[in-house]
Design a protein that fits this description.
There is one protein chain. The protein has a single domain, classed as Ribosomal Protein L22, Chain A, CATH 3.90.470.20. It is α+β, with helices and mostly antiparallel strands. 29% of the residues are buried. The longest helix is centred in the middle third of the chain and has 20 residues. It is built from two helices and five strands, in the order H-E-H-E-E-E-E.
């Protein structure tokens, strides 16, 4: 993944140490994103939220979309369950975290992860 700053590079290095790729795929972002990064069907998930919440949500989804692209899921929306948790495509386990304009998403194909 290409990074734009030394902070993003450091965050990427830390994640690469924690989650070797493959089988894990991850993406980080140090800059706030806006609604333009969302899939059209994801827009209702953030409707009515304040600006800070929208930016963090969008930053997290931006990272998740980068991860999904690497896993072969281009232009796939990442919707939410009734509790607000991301609903990853069948066969994918993942997580999104965001705070203060920074975000990270990580995922793995379930078939490569024996549990």
């Amino acid at each position: 993944m290409h990074t734009n700053s030394s902070n993003e590079s450091h965050a990427h290095q830390v994640m690469a140490t924690l989650l070797p790729s493959p089988p894990f795929y991850f993406a980080t972002s140090e800059t706030s994103k806006d609604l333009r990064v969302l899939h059209k069907s994801e827009l209702p998930l953030i409707a009515g939220a304040g600006t800070k919440r929208q930016q963090e949500f969008c930053s997290g989804r931006f990272c998740a979309h980068q991860v999904l692209d690497r896993l072969g899921y281009q232009d796939v929306p990442l919707l939410a369950d009734q509790c607000g948790a991301p609903v990853w495509p069948c066969g994918i386990a993942g997580s999104i975290s965001h705070s203060g304009g920074k975000a990270v998403a990580a995922a793995i194909q379930k078939k490569t992860f024996a549990h």
